[in-house]
Amino acid sequence: AGVGLIAIGVPMLARSYGRDPSQAFALALLNPVTILHLVGGAHNDALMLGLLAVGLALSKRGRPVAGILVCALAAAVKVPAAIGIVYIGWEWMGPGVPLRSRIRPLVTAGLIAGAVMGALSLLSGLGWSWILNLATPGTVRSWVAPATGAGQLVTAIAHLVHIPVAEHAVLSVTRLLGLGAAAVLGLWLLKNVERFGTLRAIGLTMLAVVVMGPVVQPWYLSWGLILLAPVATGRVRSLIVGCSVGSVFIGLPGGRQLVVDLLNANPLTVALALLACLAILTVPLTPFDREQLLQRWRRRRGGGDPEAMGPSEGPVVELAGA
Question: CA 90 to CA 101: how far, in whole Å?
Fold first, then answer.
């Protein structure tokens, strides 16, 4: 259902922004993040992103209340989707509006979303206990997340110089700094949304939350990549392609052993393997002209003798009586 909603919402967004919906569909749906993790892993991030994309598309088409309602459903699946609610409220009054005039729509959007999430909490019988589970991803300690990796590195260095520090205390500080940096970047993008564009600002904010957050899972990258797909051009498109390919190697089973083996391998062997991979990637993309190659081979074989050339390669002699 989530991937189906993405397939509906992303082309809607692309059309709303005057972009090619087929290209947006390919970037969002036909990439390793979606296929391997959202489809293969069946993560509920797909449902969050599908609802978020549809909600933003509804808002872009002049239906902000409907957009907030759908984005609130997305936030009920995963809280980061609330960023979409913030942007709908921020842009409710249109571009060029002073900050004071944006406060009321923001509060209204927050109240609508809060009412939806409160109703869902009561109807599901779970209440607000789900808030306590928001810290669950932080129990994973992986160096892939820069904030966590920095904390682990600081702890290791401190222990080397015999400074007794608890790793969990250091991680709390580095993770807080990471989330603070993501919040600052997100606020700056929100303030400059007219310069960057709504979808680009939301997508970059989502990526910042992932990269600077306490844990980085490969499917978390889909939060930003799928929202950037409808407006992807130039560097943004390269960012989507690069992150989509790189996500395959995040959390790769046996990845740590692979890194150890590469570090201990013969550098010449590794270099030759990389060159072979590069050749496999580039040779099929190299223009190939069979006729031109044959002509060059015949010239070299004939030593430049016109008689050794084919009939089409010999010099053309005009007869005097012609």
Answer: 9
- Which residues fall within 8 angstroms of residue 85, CB to CB, at 6 or more apart? 68, 71, 72, 75, 109, 110, 113
Report the amino acid identity of residue 45: D
pLDDT in tens, 66-104: 999 999 888 888 888 889 899 998 888 877 778 888 888
Domain boundaries, the chain: 2-252, 253-285
Cβ neighbours for 51, distance < 8 A, ≥ 6 positions apart: 2, 5, 70, 71, 73, 74, 77, 81
Q: Tell me, what DSSP letter sits at residue 33?
A: I
pLDDT score for 315: 45
What are the structure tokens assigned to 255, written together?
A: 């990845």
Compute the radius of gyration of the chain from its Cα atoms.
28
**Cβ neighbour number for residue 66 with a 10 Å cutoff:** 16
Is pTM, for the whole model, over 0.85?
no
Q: Report how far residue 28's alpha carbon sits from residue 30's, in angstroms, rounded to the nearest whole number.
A: 6
Nearest-5° Cα angle at 71, 129 to 245: 95
User: What is the total residue count of the chain?
Assistant: 322
Q: Which residue has the tokens 């007869």?
A: 319
Alpha-carbon dihedral angle through residues 142, 148, 150, 156, given to the nearest 10 degrees: -70
Helices (H), the chain: 2-16, 21-29, 32, 45-60, 64-77, 82-90, 99-124, 146-160, 167-191, 193-196, 198-211, 222-228, 235-246, 255-264, 267-282, 290-302
Measured CA distances, 301 to 258, 288, 295, 296, 298 (Å): 48, 21, 10, 9, 5
